[in-house]
Amino acid sequence: MNQIQSLLNDCLIRTKHVEHAAIIKLKDESVWPQNASLFSSAFFKNLLHIRREGLYFKEKHYKCVRADECAIYLKNEDRGLIAVKTESYILVATYCEGMYPSVCVEAIEKLGNYFMYMYV
To answer: Which helix (DSSP H) or strand (DSSP E) does residue 4 occupy?
Structure first.
């Protein structure tokens, strides 16, 4: 997991526009660094529900901005959450007030593209 932690730090956290990040391995739903398996069910079972109702994460309600089979974008006042699905992983990133959502989205999507080609 040290390589994964390095990727999260280097590609996401160091942008200063990603507050927290996690990687969920779809095969066994193991999560680094915390348990967030609700995202795998969001993509595979509840995508329509997420679009309509949003998602509760860490005791906050996030409204859906956009959701498709590859990415979910959610917002809560001055906070946001992005989940990107690859064939083998779901990457999750959050941002907070003072951070640029567009930079967070770009960072998580680029890391998702990297995982599409490198970790299939």
So the answer is: helix 2-7
pLDDT tier at 6, thresholds 50, 70, 90 = confident
Q: Are 37 and 24 in contact (CB under 8 A)?
A: yes
DSSP of 16-54, one letter per residue? TS-SEEEEEETTTTEEESS--THHHHHHHT-HHHHHHH-
Q: How many domains does the chain have?
A: 1
Pick 35 or 2 by higher pLDDT.
2
**pLDDT score for 23:** 87
pLDDT score, position 33: 55
Q: Which residues 6+ apart lie within 8 Å of 63 measured at CB?
A: 54, 74, 75, 76
CATH number at residue 38: 3.30.450.30
